[in-house]
Amino acid sequence: MIGAVAGGLLGLLALSIPVGIVLFLLGFGVDAFFSSFPLSRGLGNMVWSSSNSATLIAIPFFVLLGEILVRSGVATRTYAALDRWVSWLPGGLIHANIATATMFSATSGSSVATAATVATVAMPQAERLGYDPKLFSGAIAAGGTLGIMIPPSINLIVYGFLTQTSIPRLFLAGLVPGLALALAFMGITVLICVIRPSLGGVRRTFPIQQMLRALLDLGPIILLFGLIVGSIYRGWATPTEAAAVGVAGAFLIAALFGGINGAMLRDSLLGTVKITSMIMLIVIGASFLNFTLASAGLGREITTFMDGMGLGPLGTILVVVVLYIVLGFFIETLSLMVVTIPIIVPLVLEQGYDPIWFGILMIVLIEMALITPPVGLNLYVVQGARKSGSLNEVMLGTIPYVVMMLVMVAALIALPDIALWLPAALE
């Protein structure tokens, strides 16, 4: 059954059928061929139960928050401000790409939205200032992946919902690895540009007065992040309530910078509906597929298979890591997460691993899937913002950052406290 489901999944995705529809079709297929009961008769109840959660209301709020900041011009101001502060480093403006992605990750919750934001703002600068197109675009694609790690993260909300894990603790656990990855991305950029200065373009410095004035554009974004995340950690608001407050804060910031108008509001709301609909279709479709797979005994098959291999905890987690890396080449990230969680998480927990820690490890592996071909979404987002060049250039540019993600995976396995110490310290 495992081979049939995997083959069906890859085959349907190869036909360019929307992911949410693919999950429903696989569910019906498993029901027809592997189940002795007509499970599809409970589809209506499954659709309702998998979407009837107050936690999931946070998703459209966080999507709308990011849409308002992007479409109101706040992204352009943030990018220009960070340019003043980090472009003196070897690699110049590439660091502004990573830093801007980090800041917007702390508000939008979406990697694709973060990559699209930075790419739209940054790409016109690359050719004008003589940057290597591969490294410049690769840094944007990689920086965009931080959107699903640094809180508030839509993927962490979905993980918490599916595993009944504390979302505030997941947010805390993701903060240190997310910031560490951002610093690692900047560190590998410095190293590359020290070895090959021609790749880094122009290093620029600015008068201290300009740098201080730039803080006026950064301050509201930092304050908004503190408002959202701080209210959750202090117990003043649930993630859903904090997301609603964040939307109000984003609206005020956009108004402060003069970015509010009818067209912006219409486009923001329309974008929110589209993105949220896509996410919910995937969540509901995956819930139905997982229900049919569990009823048909796939979970028992996998458990028996893993037990037969005689692997210990470390061996099991290494197999899981390889599995996610391989599947990440072929399956869209959110789909990969929601399809595998009900099968993989119980297996991992049986080995004594912490669900918070594994959630962060999974997110790093999911981040890699965003920038590995052939279906790495961030690769196509960045390529779409370029005026020339091939997709291969973007792929090549992400290689150093994929290496840094693998280093983070190894670090999390060797030192779980990288993710767990902050939630424990603030309990």
Walk me through what this model shows:
With 427 residues, this protein is an all-alpha fold. It has one domain (2-425). The chain has 20 helices and no strands. The model has no long low-confidence stretch (mean pLDDT 81).
Helix content: over 70%
Strand content: under 5%
List the helices and strands in order.
HHHHHHHHHHHHHHHHHHHH
Count the domains.
1
Calculate the terminal CA-CA distance, rounded to whole Å.
43 Å
Low-pLDDT parts are none
The assigned structural class equals: mainly alpha
Radius of gyration: 21 Å
- How many DSSP E strands? 0
Please work out how many helical segments DSSP would assign: 20
How would a crystallographer describe the biggest sheet? none
Instruction: Calculate the mean pLDDT score and round it.
Output: 81
Characterize the overall form: globular
Membrane topology: Multi-pass membrane protein
Transmembrane segments: 12-34, 54-74, 135-158, 170-195, 215-236, 242-263, 275-296, 316-349, 356-381, 401-422
Main location: membrane
Organism: Jannaschia helgolandensis
Please summarize what this structure is.
This protein has 20 helices and no strands. With 427 residues, it is mainly α.
Which labels suit this protein?
mainly alpha, DctM, 0% strand, cell membrane, 78% helix, cell inner membrane, TRAP_DctM, 427 residues
